[in-house]
Each structure stands twice: as C-alpha cells, then as structure tokens.
Design goal:
The protein is α+β, with helices and mostly antiparallel strands. It has helices spanning about 25-50, 50-55, 75-80, 140-145; strands at about 10, 15, 65, 70, 85-90, 95-100, 110-115, 120-125, 150, 160, 165-175, 180-185. The strands form 3 sheets. The protein has an 8-stranded antiparallel sheet with strand order 5-6-7-8-12-11-10-9, covered by helices on one side. Strands 1-2 form a two-stranded antiparallel ribbon. Strands 3-4 form a two-stranded antiparallel ribbon. The termini are far apart.
Length: about 190
C-alpha cells in the first residue's frame, strides 16, 4: 500500500522532493520515477538559468510593444494598462512617458505617444530584450546574427523591420561594438527623426 505524505514542488530553480513511501518494490519504483522526473525538471531549469515563473514575468520588447503597453495605443489606452507614467506634456505634439517599472533619468523619456499615431516608440531599459534575445550590452555580431538583413541608417543607427510586425522597426545604437541603446517604433511615428 502506498501512502504519499507530501508533495513535489519547484521553487526558484530548486526542487523539493518531500515524499515518503511505505510498501512493496512497486512503490519504490514509483518513488524512483518521481525522483528522477523531479531531478530532470530541476536540471533543465538550472541549465536554462530561469524558472517557469521567470519566463512569464519578463516580457520582451517587441514585436508589438512591451507587456500590456502596445504600439499604436492612445494615451487613454496606455494609461488604462497602469504600466505608464507621464513625464512631459505634448503641447499638441508627442508626449513623453515612462514605464513605471523602468523610470528614466530626469531629462529623458522611455515612451513617446503621438496625438496622430498613438504610442509611437518605446526605448529599452537595462534588462529588457527583444524576442530574439538582443539587449543593451549585446555585441554587433549578436545583432547581425539575430537580424541578418539589418542596415545602418543615415544617423549611424542599425535599423530593421521588426520580425513579425511590418508596421514597426527596431533601432540599435552601437558604441565600441556593443548595443548601448535600442528601441521599437512605428514606421509612421512622427515624434523624432
């Protein structure tokens, strides 16, 4: 007779196996299968460096925005997400905003919202990454591997249409071979050159 008295759980990449069994050899085989399965799960989480919860709590920048904040949203829609805070009034033009979780320094903004096209651009904060894994600190080699058709624009930024969203583009600023800034913007944005 098997008497399970606890549970198997995963917490921050660590597995807690809390089972005790009494009974025949079949019970011992079942216990071994449970232990092996839990060990494999823990190993895969440790190798990836993440937990299942991490994957759900780290949205990517692209292809349509960042988390609930999406390109093209009106001011009202962006405010409704609860994820943005206004920094600069638009005075008839583009207003400046920040993502609440990623405030920018006093004289900058992380988001532009246009009265004509809606949320026009989101600039990356440290820790954000594209779905292809590019982040601040990535090398030019990594950027070119992720986006083989990337080109330099007249301002020296590396620019490419966002994979999966032909209405937007990524722009990457590079210094000494590494990404120092990047963002996603609507191709029809009217907030900056």
């Amino acid at each position: 007779m098997i008497k399970p008295s606890a549970r198997v759980g995963v917490n921050r990449g660590k597995v807690a196996l809390l089972k005790t069994f009494t009974g025949d050899s079949q019970s011992k085989q079942n216990m071994m299968k449970t232990m092996i399965g839990a060990s494999l799960l823990a190993g895969s989480l440790l190798v990836s460096g993440a937990t299942a919860a991490d994957a759900q709590t780290k949205p990517t920048l692209g292809p349509y925005g960042y988390g609930a904040v999406k390109l093209g949203m009106t001011v009202k829609q962006a405010k409704t997400t609860g994820d943005v805070v206004k920094k600069r009034p638009g005075h008839g033009g583009c207003s400046g905003w920040d993502l609440k979780k990623f405030p920018t320094p006093k004289d900058s903004v992380g988001i532009y919202i246009s009265p004509n096209v809606g949320l026009a651009a989101i600039f990356a904060a440290k820790g954000m990454r594209t779905p292809e894994g590019i982040k601040i600190g990535s090398t030019v080699k990594q950027v070119k591997a992720a986006y083989p058709r990337i080109k330099k624009d007249v301002h020296g930024f590396h620019v490419i249409t966002v994979p999966g969203n032909k209405e937007a583009y990524y722009t990457f600023g590079v210094t000494h071979g590494k990404v120092t800034e990047y963002g996603i913007a609507l191709t029809k944005q009217d907030c900056f050159n």
